[in-house]
Design a protein that fits this description.
By secondary structure, this protein is mainly alpha-helical. The protein has 16 helices and eight strands. The chain is 73% helix and 7% strand. The N and C termini lie far apart (56 Å).
Length: 473
Amino acid sequence: MPHASGLMTDLSALDLSRWQFGLTTVYHFLFVPLTIGMVLLVAILQTTWVRTNNDKYLKLTKLFGKIFLINFAMGVVTGIVQEFQFGMNWSDYSRFVGDVFGAPLAMEGLIAFFFEATFIGLWIFGWDRLSKKVHLATIWVTVFGVWASAYFILAANAFMQNPVGFSINTEKNRAELTNIGSVLTNVVALNQFPHTIVASIMFAGAVIASISAYHLKRGQHVGDMRTSLRFGLWASLVGGVGTVVTGDGLGLAMVQTQPMKMAAAEALYNTTKNASFSIFTLGTPDGHSELFSIRIPDLLSFLSTHTLSGQVEGINDLNAQYQTLYGPGDYNPVIWITYWAFRWMIGLGMLSALVAVVGLWLTRKQEAKLPKWAWNVAIWSAPLSLIAISVGWLFTEMGRQPWIVFKLMKTADAVSPGINGVDVLISLIVFTLIYGALAVVEFKLLLNAAQTGPAEISAADEDADAEQLTVAY
């Protein structure tokens, strides 16, 4: 009986730790795509102002620069919690792979975040203190810092998907770094990075289009907002096309390194040639029984191998292979989550790109007057790409299960041995309440900045505008 009680405590600690890490990670990631995409778009707007000397672009730079700064600050605050959790709830994981996993994270903090923090400060305070071109350079260096930060973090995540550049110290029972170059050039990281960047640009463009549509619907700042509307729609469309192209490369890397994840994406249980892809299926949630489906012949084979007749390994066959290699057990991820997350990712991403195409068509003429529904679609469609990105990460992480580091360490073996379910539940509740409060603050700050719109620019109030950006930061 005590043994059963202890087992239940261990299970609840593991499950609650996963819930807590999922909560904090998903919440933090809500801010990441907007930061990654918006910093580039702000840099492009400021570059256009410097080249044309048209104050319209200066106003747009400062408006969307304020959005970027608010979001960046909240991302920093919520990101700090992530690192604490490795020691709090996942100490066995940290002990086993910390030497490898910690290297790219250390580089992110020492190199990338240094550039971000330093040059964001110069950009904020340098409006009336630096020349136009030097000040413009600070935002482009910020782009480099933000994107470098994203790459180092993705390299750390890629190690969990496809561990490379290490050796196992059998005496200490831990993975030790042997080749940082291999870690940083992991095939998964090389494909995840461009996919993440263009998806973030798609979302940032949708946010710009949404804010612009809000003002145009009310007849406010028409000249400025029409320019930013078209700019945002083009950014969203380019990002959407880029997401499809880079997603293809990431899919090939996934098949190469984690074939189970691709099989789980289609709930394909048996190895198949000429494998079709279902765009809609009715049946049991786990995919074992199919009642009705709409399928595209050979598409899964093409996505997996770039040939229509390519062979795609099935869940059952892969599970049998893993049992031979790694011992008895169930190596299947949660199929219904991977199956539907993959489709929601693709569907919502394509819908977001479609909104951009329709919006560009409807606004192709300067004097075009759009119906109310069109403005409403533009305003409320901004979250589509963010949700697509979020469920895409859900697919990425859940598709790796039951491994926390693929082929090296299972998630059940990574949780801290000294914690219990009650401890984790208390911290989970506290984090949820704190993050809920931060969400209210973030939403109100962004909503206020978005609804205020671009401020008029004059020589007399340039200093005041710089101070407003400082306050936003």
